[in-house]
Task: structure prediction
Amino acid sequence: MNRRTFIKAVAATAAVAPTIIHAADAKPVLLGGKPVHTGGWPTWPRWNEAWEQGVLNVYRSGKWNRNSDKHVENFEAAFASLIGAKKCVTTTSGTTAMTVALHVMDVHAGDEVITSPFTFIAPYNVILNVSALPVFADTDPTTLTMDPKSIESKITDRTRAILPVHIFGSPCDMDAINAIAKKHNLAVIEDAAQACLAVYDGRNAGTLGDLGCFSFQESKHMPAGEGGAVTSMSAELIDKCNSFHNVGRPVGTYQGKGAFTAGHNLRMMQVQAVILLQELEARKQDILTRCANADYLSAALNKIPGIATARLQKNSRAVWYLYPFRYDEKQFNGLPREKFAKALSSEGIPCSPSYKEQYNEGIIDEAINSRGFKRLWTSAQLKAYRDSFQQLKGTKQACETVVAIGNKMLLAERSALDHIPEAIRKIQKFSAELAKK
Result:
C-alpha cells in the first residue's frame, strides 16, 4: 500500500458518523453510579503464535548478534521501503537512535540543539548526554507540536541542529522548520519515535529531515520490546550512522580513516529483527485501524463544549501513539483536570494528563549546575537559559490542559469507542457536583 492509498483508505473507513449514546440520568461512578464501559480494552502488544517458530529458529541457530546473520539487514531494508526512505540502520532503542543521529550530524559538547519541551524525556537526555544544551522552542497549543514561529529567536552561533518531535504521532510543520534550518545551515533530526507511518504532505515521518529516529519499544506501533532505527533519504548519512553504531567499523560509502573510527555498540539483535519482520503487515493494519477510529472519535468529541482534539498540519495524517484532547475546565463548572481524569477513568475509560513541564523537574538544573556545563557556558549564559523557560506559554498551556488515552483503545470496536464521549457528557452534566468532592 503506497502513501496515497493509505490516506484514502483511512479517510474512507472514517466516513461513518459516530453514534453518541446519552445516559441522561445516569450518575458518574464517583457519585455512586455505574461505569459507562465495563468490557475492558484491547491489550498491547498483541502476539501471534505463528511468529514463535521464527524466534526459536534464531535462538537455535546460535546466530544472535547483528553481524552473525541477515535478519537485521533484511528488516532495515523492509522498514526503509515501508516509510519511503532511501536507507535505514537499526539500533538498541529510539533513544540511542537519536544518540547516533546527533553524532553523525556533528553535535558535540558546547553546541545547542533546538527541540520541543512537550515530549517524553528522551530528547532532553540525548542532547544533555553529549554535553550539548537543549534549547526549547515553544509548543503550539492547538497542534501540540513545535511552533515554528518560536524557533528563529532561539538560534545562536552555537546552534547545530533542530530536533522536532512528532508528538503523539502527529507531524510537525516540517516545511516551516526545514526552511528555517536551510536559512541558518542547521541539521534537522526528526524524533519520529511515536510516528511510524505518520504522513506529512504525502511523505512519511522519518523522511522529512536529514535523519529520522524511530522506536520499537513495546508500547510503540511496531514493538519488539526494545529497539530503534535511523532513517534518511541520504545513503551516505546512514552509512555513517551504521559505522558509529557498530563500534566504528567502516561501512559502505563511509570508510572513516582506518580500520575503526569513533563509535559505540548500539546494534539490534537478530531476534528483534525477526519479530519486527514477521509483524510488519499486521502492524500496518493496526495503524490503519487506529487512524480511522481516531477520526471517528474526534468527530464525536469535538461536539462536546470544553473538549478540543489536536489540530493537524495541512495534508497530514497522525497515527496516535497516545490520543490527546484539550480540556477546558470552565466548560465543566471548574472541575479540575486531575479530577476530570479520575472521574473518566472510573467510568472505565483509562486516561491521564500527559506531559509535564519537565524542564522544571530537576533534569535541566542537574545538568547546568554540573562542573562540565559550567566549563562550557558562563554563569550568565546558563541563568539566561534557565530564565527563558518562562517564555514557553504555549507549552505551559498544553501541559495544563491535555488529557490522553492509550493507543490500544483505538483498536476497539466502534461500540466501545462510543462510550468515551458518553462518559465525558455524563461527567460534564454532573461536573458541578464532582468539583465539590
